[in-house]
Amino acid sequence: MYRYLLTAVLVFFSTADLSAQAQSADYPSFPKMDVDYLHLDLQLKVSEDLLVEGNALYKIEALRGGLDSLSLDASGIEVQQLEWNGEERDYRMKDDRLVVLLPGAWGANDEAELRVIYRTSPEFGLHVDSSGTIWASLLPGSVRHWLPAFDHPRNTLTTDVRIVYPSGKQVVMNGSSSDSEVENVDFQSLRFTTEFPLAVTTLSFAIGDFEQSRTTVGRHQLYLHSHNGILSEDQRGVLLELAYNTFRSAENHTGSGFPWRTLHIVVLEDDRGETKNYGTGILYLYHNRGNLEGQLKRGVASQWFGIQLREEQWSDAAAIRLLQTWLNRDLSVDGDSGDKQYPESEDIKKRAGFSDSTGIYAVFSPYMELKWKNYYQSEQAGDLRDAVSRTAPLILSQKTGVINWYDFAHLVYEQTGQPFLTAPEPRVISEQETEESYHYTATFTLDEAERTLRMIFNAENRSSDELIPAIATEMTRQDTVRHELAFTGQTDEIVMNVNPAIENLKLSITGDASVRLDIQKPFMFWIYQLRNDEDPAAREKAARNLREFADNPDLQLALLDFLSDETYPGVQAEIIRTLSAVVGGAFGTEQLFLDRYRSESPTVVQQAIVESLAGYEGNEQVISRLQQILVQSEDEKLKEQAAHSLGAVTEANRFRNIIESLQSREEVRPVIPFLLNQLAGKGEAEAAVEIAEFFLSADHAYKLRSGALDVLLAYDRSAIHWEQRIPALLDDSDPRIRFEAAAGLQYFPDDTRRNLIENRLLNEYDVRVRQRLSQYLSE
């Protein structure tokens, strides 16, 4: 059987105790491989409470003679029976490893069968979310928590798995599925097989309420499994078509066919802090990250660079990240621009210390995707970019399996003669580094008697030493006239003769300079622009800038007139905001906004109206309408704005009563933390803490739990309270909750805190959480 040449170099690896094993963040380089694991037959039963019962049969071959024992990674696994070639054998557990005592010396190339019957309730390696969906983590060292295995990227084998799962659910796993069976009233099973070897570290499965769609690409099957109700039928169709097109494009671009018969795409609600989202023939898309199309495209491409060719250690994954970036950037797929990124959603930004921190897990985080792309297209990466483009298909065709930066640099050097001995450290290039940028304010003053217009330019950041060319377009009812001009320095002034019938003047920058230009115009210029400009963006700007003239007595009627004629939603929204600034919450004017609120209106218009209602303190109609919006709207941002406006118009006691009456409504749950922060800001911190406590339960979605925890951390400093709640939080199945809850340790007495942390570290395998807990040991 073909084996990697590098496996001839053996490095012994062991861990001293459970605590040290829990801290192991990465796979060892060049592990000691005494055995070649050829094939795995596995029956795996997974219960809803994460009880795992397995019967694993390995077909193995000795790589050297004289073996009297072998060992498997088996963290927290209870072995019930062990067999060697069908006969029971002795074994022992040491440092989270299963040591098998062999019957006498075992010779090189000898084959045998090793069976392990076991059970476990993993504290790491499996996730279950608030909807009951279960799936297997792809973080380093995860597999050993639900399967005794030589858990390393160099261990490749074929698999035949029958997975037993709760009746009424659906199951997904690496490989092609067949032979569905009903086990009993509570469980059913499905078989998954792989015909080509896969790395044991890329094994994963998911069990949940999934809707399934399928398409065919040649001899391959592409399946889309989405959590029930999370996607519409049209959305599933778009994703499946994109998967098909990306699949074909990747095959053509790499010159390498997809090696597995089946690709499963699983759409889940929440990422649970996972960073790498792909295994062999399986990839996960996370709804909370947004941009499912971008996630899908990168996930499909990773089957070439990431699975066929993969890193041995996450800490040395630079070559894989670079090759992924090359393929993702160069793929041309209909329906995806190729330039989409994971959005830096508020959730990702907020959890930057967890998801995107420096450290081993960050290597495959959404933020690192942006950094690699930014680096790859920068000028400083030009030579490397050219070398990668020339050698990437060849590197893939060599089928080296695992690759580190040295391997990659050696192959590139052989083909191009270019030495890239050090892996790059990609970073986001700032705007100042990519291009020169300036920010100027231009103030226009019209002198009708002199028939002149004075333009004063002021630099708001740094000033330009070069002339910045611009075009001034003078507008009258009958004509337009273009004037070429230029400005420079910290302050500059230009006086221009104009037509006495001038209605507006627009200014635009020409040339290559990157200049942001804010313009302050006379009142009537903005009125003309709002009424007549064909560009919706220009009308939006006019409506927004008219707020500077909110005290003009003629503006309210003009805005109402414009609003009745305007059809573009963005312009309507800015007119509404300016109208709000004009009326200033005056009694009776609330009807201007209440009468215009329609649930079928564009969201941007609804948002502007809800913002405007914040000016009517104590108004019962407004309070009632905002509560309706909180319950009835399906847009979370609109709910948040309604919560903000409701807090602004409602006194503290009334606001608390409203929250208590609405907190049981499922529709309001997404904005409960937002409401509680406002309640605390009104002087009702104790009430906010009391309500937040209820939403810490694992029965709720992560975002709600996290928001409730934020409220508690901000407003509850009671040592007694934290001593009561934090042990359960540090045992929570969601690593993000454990990570965030660690901040509550600051309220503990030193000795109590140290004892709690040391006990927790014995069974904490998530490196990010370990690092966070360890911070509080030294404080």
Q: Can you put this structure into words, describing what you see?
A:
Helix content is 35%, strand content 25%. It has 26 helices and 28 strands. The strands form six sheets. Strands 1, 2, 4, 5, 8, 11, 13, 14 and 15 form a nine-stranded mixed beta sheet that branches. A five-stranded mixed beta sheet has the order 17-18-19-21-20, covered by helices on one side. Strand 20 and strand 21 form a beta hairpin. Residues 1-23, 333-352 and 431-435 have low confidence and may be disordered.
Keywords:
5-stranded mixed sheet; 26 helices; 9-stranded mixed sheet; 779 residues; disordered N terminus; alpha+beta; globular
SS class = alpha+beta
User: Which segments are poorly predicted (pLDDT under 50) over 5 or more consecutive residues?
Assistant: 1-23, 333-352, 431-435
Number of strands: 28
Main sheet specs: 9 strands, mixed
What is the distance, rounded to the nearest whole angstrom, between the alpha carbons of the first and last residues? 54 Å
SSE inventory with pairings:
Elements lengths: L17 H6 L11 E12 L5 E11 L4 E7 L4 E7 L2 E2 L2 E4 L2 E10 L4 E10 L5 E3 L5 E3 L19 E11 L3 E4 L2 E7 L4 E7 L4 E2 L5 E4 L1 E8 L2 E8 L5 H22 L7 E7 L9 E2 L2 E5 L5 H10 L16 H13 L15 H5 L1 H4 L10 H11 L5 H16 L7 H12 L14 H4 L2 E11 L4 E8 L4 E12 L4 E10 L1 E7 L6 E6 L4 E7 L2 H10 L3 H10 L9 H11 L3 H15 L7 H4 L8 H10 L7 H13 L3 H14 L2 H11 L9 H10 L3 H10 L7 H14 L3 H12 L4 H7 L8 H12 L5 H9 L4
Parallel strand pairs: 1-11, 18-19, 19-21, 22-28
Antiparallel strand pairs: 1-2, 2-8, 3-7, 4-5, 4-8, 6-7, 9-10, 10-16, 11-14, 11-15, 12-16, 13-14, 17-18, 20-21, 22-23, 23-26, 24-25, 24-27
Helix pairs in contact: 2-3, 4-7, 8-9, 11-12, 12-14, 13-14, 14-16, 16-18, 17-18, 18-20, 19-20, 20-21, 20-22, 21-22, 22-24, 24-26
